[in-house]
Write a structure and sequence with these properties.
The complex is a heterodimer of chains A (198) and B (573). With 198 residues, chain A is an all-alpha fold. Chain A has helices at 3-14, 19-27, 37-50, 65-74, 81-99, 108-119, 129-145, 157-162. Chain A has a domain at 31-155. Chain A is 50% helix and 0% strand. Chain A is elongated, with a radius of gyration of 19 Å. Chain A starts with a helix and ends in a 36-residue tail after the last helix. Chain B contains 15 helices and 22 strands. The chains are: A mainly alpha (198), B alpha/beta (573). At the A-B interface, helix 6, helix 7 and helix 8 of A face helix 3, helix 8, helix 11 and helix 12 of B.
């Protein structure tokens, strides 16, 4: 995995930003970005079909799942950024071939048809479709259900969806009881405000 | 040129689960010990977090630069080309894998030490696994018992005895070998799900018990009790309730002033003179090469690295690698048939099991009816079996990534509804199958893939095994029976495909009386280089159906004590 190297690269790059930017950074830490605005919109459209908004709660993008993926691709997963962007572009090209429109301009049903063909390996002219779809789905899971510290799981909506009661530093026997609702503990492992960190 | 250091009595290569224990009896005996560790000290407050992305997704506790660049290659047949694996199971840090392990701390069964002779006696030689190189260990359970006892108390193990000097107690494991006294601490806390599984096992007529673990159930030796926060797996313990050697035996040894820890020091060769005695080790630290002279060298890195280091250390006396003039280094290797080998069983319940928090396998309930030779194997076509363990601790990403058991699609609103209802209702189990060495399972040096120093990485060859496949499937069916008795509505069994790279590996420098088929003698010292000792899973001849660490530690203590008691004859001072 390229993690450690990319982390160092990010730090090294951060060290040569202009003084004005450093002043701004004192208030809000610089957020590394791997994807363009257009790529982020496409990514949001994809992950929102994997985790859609419905009566059970917000969509992936409403939980900042694309923020998680974007940061990861700029940092820990920098080594896989080119392949991921290639997958995004191939998804859009597939939409244009099969539906004569950009993916983000398709109806939800059409988006599902495109993604289903990728998931079941029938997407023509996109040999890595299944691998890309599985990767996007996996990263969506990380962004939805991981610690908010990394940018996703906004308002702990992912943990609430599956009724995960949150990372407590210590638990009691009562927290391990069955048949009772354990009240959710809405805190990042990195403490109060940790969800704004990284 | 290497920088020559001041000579020491003993150089210990690797301060993990085994080496980290061996340093204590050595230092207490007054021997000057250099503990040479490729990794560094980890800081519990900075490096260990209740964070699934940190521990499990990105493996930031377990992924360390040295091991990452030495990932062994793997193949399933001696005729195949081996490919480098994607991830490694090793660890470099002071404390090694005892930092992030699940800490279940078992004694092997008396049967594990004499599987070959007991099998022949009970069933005849035809039931011995075909193609295996199985031998009885040169030591039995009774000889190891005092060392199990010492380590349980020095490191700190929580558990409930099932057999104290022949007196059975069904609150513990009645199938264990006799122990001289109770564990130093009671088992970790029970909880609703474990009670539920305990009751289900009893309803089948089985004898479930709470797992023994090197995690404090109460304050012990100045460290606190477990906080059950649920991030034990692949994470270190922030409160130091997990008895990793970096919190226990290593600091204890440092108090004697006889142990010096050299961290960030990567051992590259063990040096031998023309008479076949080892004279010390070379290591690289901060880009500089050092030679550490030592009267005795104990090698205690991971199974793969123990073999690799010997094979790389060629000399006039050992042209095929250190202690390899009988061609046995790397032989009799095998991996454990556990979850990493596809031996899994997962269940869905119609109610919340609330297994989110806890302490992984250490907060677990185990059934031992279907392991070892506890049941009659006549007509079954295999020996051994597996221990069955249900346990606590489930992380949110993994929970949401659950199997949908064919009941829902894998994404979209229907999937969301499914995980909303069921992420808290599924659990899995941990099965460990008795595993054995074979002619077609071994370690050697890869002919092509090299580490950054230009040294070949380890190559793992692990061929198919009918015996373990049958035993694993038999045990999986028992696990399904247990889950069904507990009310599971869906059960999925994995395909036992066999171990690839694994965190439970054995052999390569096997212990045995016969130098034609073993690398080290009954005390853990080389049959060829008299002042070279080997510690860790690499000396095991069978795996048992349970986690290996406590046995490694008992053997390490015994080897170190033997060295201290026989210092003059072994060191040749």
């Amino acid at each position: 995995m390229p993690g450690e190297i990319s982390r160092r690269t990010v730090i090294a790059t951060a060290a040569i930003v202009p003084v004005a930017a450093l002043t701004a950074a004192a208030q809000t830490p610089p957020t590394p970005s791997a994807l363009s605005d257009a790529q982020l919109r496409l990514l949001a459209a994809i992950v929102d079909r994997i985790i859609p908004k419905d009566e059970l709660g917000p969509s992936a993008s409403e939980c900042d799942v694309p923020v998680y993926i974007n940061r990861a691709l700029a940092d820990y997963l920098a080594g896989e950024k080119p392949a991921f962007i290639e997958g995004l572009e191939a998804t859009d090209a597939l939409a244009r071939r099969t539906h004569n429109a950009a993916f983000i301009d398709l109806t939800p049903e059409q988006r599902d048809a495109v993604l289903t063909s990728m998931d079941n390996g029938t997407a023509e002219g996109f040999p890595n479709a299944r691998a890309f779809f599985n990767r996007a789905r996996r990263l969506a899971m990380e962004g939805m259900f991981g610690d908010p510290y990394y940018g996703g799981n906004k308002n702990f909506a992912g943990w609430d969806l599956i009724k995960y009661p949150g990372p407590r530093m210590a638990t009691t026997a009562a927290d391990q009881r069955m048949g009772v609702e354990i009240s959710p503990y809405h805190h990042s492992a990195y403490g109060a405000g940790g969800e704004h960190g990284h | 040129m290497a920088i020559n250091l001041k000579p020491v009595d003993v150089a210990v290569v690797g301060l993990g689960a085994a080496g980290g224990v061996a340093v204590l009896p050595l230092a207490r005996a007054g021997l000057k010990v250099a503990g040479i560790e490729a990794g560094t000290w980890m800081d519990p407050s900075k490096d260990f977090k209740p964070d699934e992305i940190h521990n499990n997704v990105r493996s930031l506790v377990t992924t360390v630069p040295k091991a990452k660049k030495e990932i062994p290659t793997f193949r399933t047949s001696p005729d195949a080309k081996a490919r480098q694996a994607a991830a490694h199971p090793m660890m470099n840090a002071v404390g090694g894998t005892s930092i992030h392990y699940h800490a279940q701390s078992w004694r092997l069964k008396p049967w594990d030490f004499k599987t070959r002779s007991e099998t022949i006696k009970r069933y005849g030689a035809t039931l011995l696994p075909k193609g295996s190189t199985l031998e009885d260990w040169p030591v039995g359970y009774d000889e190891l018992e005092p060392y199990y006892d010492i380590v349980e108390h020095e490191v700190g193990v929580s558990g409930k005895a099932g057999n104290i000097q022949g007196k059975l107690d069904p609150a513990g494991n009645v199938y264990e070998g006799p122990r001289q006294r109770e564990y130093p601490m009671p088992t970790l806390r029970t909880c609703d799900f474990l009670d539920h599984m305990h009751k289900a096992a009893r309803s089948l007529g089985w004898k479930p018990f709470h797992a023994p673990s090197a995690i404090n159930s109460q304050p012990y030796h100045g460290r606190p009790a477990c906080a059950y926060h649920g991030y034990c797996d692949r994470g270190g313990c922030q409160v130091r309730a997990k008895n990793s050697t970096c919190f226990t035996t290593i600091p204890e040894a440092q108090k004697t002033k006889n142990l010096t820890v050299f961290d960030g020091a990567q051992v590259t060769r063990i040096v031998a003179d023309n008479n076949g005695k080892v004279t010390g080790v070379t290591y690289i630290r901060d880009g500089k090469e050092y030679f550490q002279p030592a009267k005795v060298v104990l090698v205690s890195s991971y199974t793969y690295e123990n073999t690799r280091l010997l094979l790389l250390s060629k000399s006039k006396a050992y042209p095929n690698g250190l202690s390899n003039n009988h061609g046995q280094v790397g032989k009799h290797y095998f991996g454990h048939w556990d979850a990493q080998a596809g031996v899994g069983v997962t269940a869905l319940f119609p109610f919340d099991v609330n297994t989110w928090y806890g302490a992984m396998l250490s907060q677990g309930v185990v059934v031992d009816e279907w392991a070892d030779d506890t049941f009659d194997h006549s007509g079954l076509g295999f020996i051994g079996g597996a221990s069955l363990c249900t346990f606590m601790e489930k992380h949110p990403i993994a929970a949401a990534s659950m199997s949908t058991f064919g009941r829902a699609p894998a994404w979209g609103s229907a999937w969301k509804k499914f995980v909303h209802e069921n992420a808290g209702r599924w659990t899995t189990s941990y099965l460990q199958t008795n595993s054995f060495p074979y002619e077609n399972t071994y370690l050697d040096l890869d002919p092509e893939v090299k580490d950054p120093l230009g040294d070949p990485v380890c190559r793992v060859t692990s061929g198919p095994k009918d015996n373990e496949t049958r035993a694993a499937i038999y045990a999986q069916n028992k696990m399904e029976e247990w889950f069904r008795a507990a009310g599971a509505v869906e059960v999925i069994k994995g395909q036992p495909f066999g171990p690839a790279l694994s965190t439970h590996t054995y052999g390569g420098t096997r212990m045995g009386d016969n130098p034609e088929t073993n690398v080290v003698d009954r005390w853990g010292f080389s049959h060829e280089a008299p002042n070279l000792g080997m510690l860790g899973g690499s000396v095991f001849g069978t795996s048992g159906a349970r986690n290996p660490t406590l046995t490694m530690q008992a053997l390490a203590w015994r080897t170190a004590e033997h060295l201290a008691k026989n210092w003059k004859s072994i060191a040749g001072a």
